[in-house]
Amino acid sequence: MGSKSGFRDFSLQRELPLPDGWVLSSLELALDATANFSLGGERVVIKADRGVGGACQLFSPPPSPEMKIFKGRLDFLSRRVPELGGGTVIVEQEIEGGRSLSGQGFCDGSGYFSTHFTALHLHCQVPGGALIGKDVIECEVEKKLLILLKKVGRAVSLFGYRGVLGVDFITDDKGELSLLEFNPRRTSLSHAMPLLEGLLGKGWRNSATILIAGPVGFSCTLSEPLGGVEGSLFERGSGEGIVLTSFTKSGLVTFRAS
Q1: Highest mean pLDDT, choosing among 50-54, 153-157, 171-175
Q2: Which residue, of 121, 148, 183, 237, has the fewest CB within 10 Å?
Q3: Distance (Å, rounded) from C-alpha 93 to C-alpha 95?
Q4: Distance between alpha carbon 205 and the CA centroid of its chain, in Å?
Q5: What is the CATH number of the domain that holds 170?
Q6: Residue 31 lies in a domain
Q7: How far apart are CA 201 and CA 179, in angstroms?
Q8: Beta bridge partners of 256
């Protein structure tokens, strides 16, 4: 499930809505496909089959009759992103005018999935690429997002995965949702940051907040405000994780995400 071609196979078999996409065996074939789509007025996204998130998602250059423009651009990108030259490449339809949305939750490995949060308009906030949402999701869009998130989460959980699952979506200009990718992962900054935003409010960046990635060996002290989320989110045992400490009006607040 870690590869994007594997993700497409897994998702299509379960009739989850995806942008049109093609799995190609090399960057050269991806180059030809990209040129054909661009010359036809379409734009696509090129993804390395394996790699880390946004670093391997590359938008095609603007339409041009000059093949050398495509080749030069992709040669340059492949040097910066070695994963592109390492094997299978995905060429996927770009959804114009879309907004990025994300959801995250916990799979128990036997078909159950609990939602932790949803976010809209993802953007980078801290070094390391943590993504959080800065706007409120409209009610109707959030309903669709929660339904699709739970469907994906249950499918992955039933497949046997136990742990945190992040799922990325995009909306078209009609508000319809498509699934872009999901990432079984360890809890990280990308998980802890939205929780910090929810607990401390949007002004938390102006406070004295410390984020430390390292060994975590103490329990969460925020069980009351976190409610039911705390049990499934933080009871993972010791190991690497995130410690978030903030000096608030009510005193020192510290919790972990391991």
Answers
A1: 153-157
A2: 237
A3: 6
A4: 22
A5: 3.30.470.20
A6: yes
A7: 29
A8: 243
